[in-house]
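Please fill in the sequence for the structure shown.

STRUCTURE ENCODING:
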């Protein structure tokens, strides 16, 4: 299923110092109980199942804004999907609440897939003189065409691994997107490995971007669900 191992970030890097991982972390991106809902996610820490962040807002609305909040409910930043992306020159805009300035710059990759580059100002680069030396670019790349699996790298070092959780999805039965079968992809629980030295809030932001890009929000038809459940659970059918 591919290599989950991540490497230490080249240096400590993040949007804010308090969310930079001191050691490798495993996070779970949990969609709303109804896995077909487009409305929200909860991001939990594997070690004790503690809630780190919540993501509210809908994928498709007039504004199309996801709102990230910390465990106490305080707003952290907003992620807005722009449409069409070519008109605005970027697929998403990430800003502080009530602020128009962009926290990150995102450029779509060439070719098929969901590849993109995300550039941000490193809040921990306090010992550099030139502003351009504070900028860090994260390369987000799809690692498999057969599975939902992505990586994020900085300077050739893999600092994040994103994939569907085999363990956590045993009772959700995610349907793989396939034009041949007509299935619609349900949102799955995602596991994200984050390297030490990398911002796990930024990793969560990238993960939500991937979830909203990769998984459909449309509900499967009742016949499709019944057929899928029968095939997955023949004894119960």
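FILLED IN BY: designer on duty
SEQUENCE:
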């Amino acid at each position: 299923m591919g290599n989950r191992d991540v490497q230490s970030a080249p240096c400590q890097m993040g949007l804010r110092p308090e969310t930079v991982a001191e050691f490798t972390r495993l996070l779970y991106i949990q969609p709303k109980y109804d896995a077909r809902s487009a409305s929200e996610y909860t991001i939990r820490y594997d070690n004790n199942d503690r809630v780190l962040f919540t993501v509210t807002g809908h994928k498709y609305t007039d504004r199309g804004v996801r709102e990230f909040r910390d465990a106490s409910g305080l707003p952290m930043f907003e992620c807005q999907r722009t449409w069409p992306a070519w008109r605005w020159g970027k697929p998403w805009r990430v800003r502080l609440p009530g602020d128009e300035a962009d926290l990150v710059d995102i450029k779509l990759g060439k070719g098929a897939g969901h590849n993109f580059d995300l550039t941000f100002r490193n809040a921990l680069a306090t010992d550099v003189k030139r502003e351009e030396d504070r900028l860090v670019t994260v390369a987000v790349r799809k690692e498999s065409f057969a599975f939902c699996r992505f990586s994020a790298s900085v300077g050739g070092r893999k600092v994040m691994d994103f994939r569907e959780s085999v363990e956590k999805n045993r009772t959700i039965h995610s349907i793989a997107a396939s034009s041949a079968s007509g299935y619609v992809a349900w949102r799955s629980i995602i596991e994200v490995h984050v390297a030490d030295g990398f911002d796990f809030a930024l990793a969560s932001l990238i993960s939500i971007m991937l979830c909203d890009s990769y998984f459909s929000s449309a509900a499967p038809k009742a016949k499709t669900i019944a057929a899928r459940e029968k095939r997955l659970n023949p004894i119960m059918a």
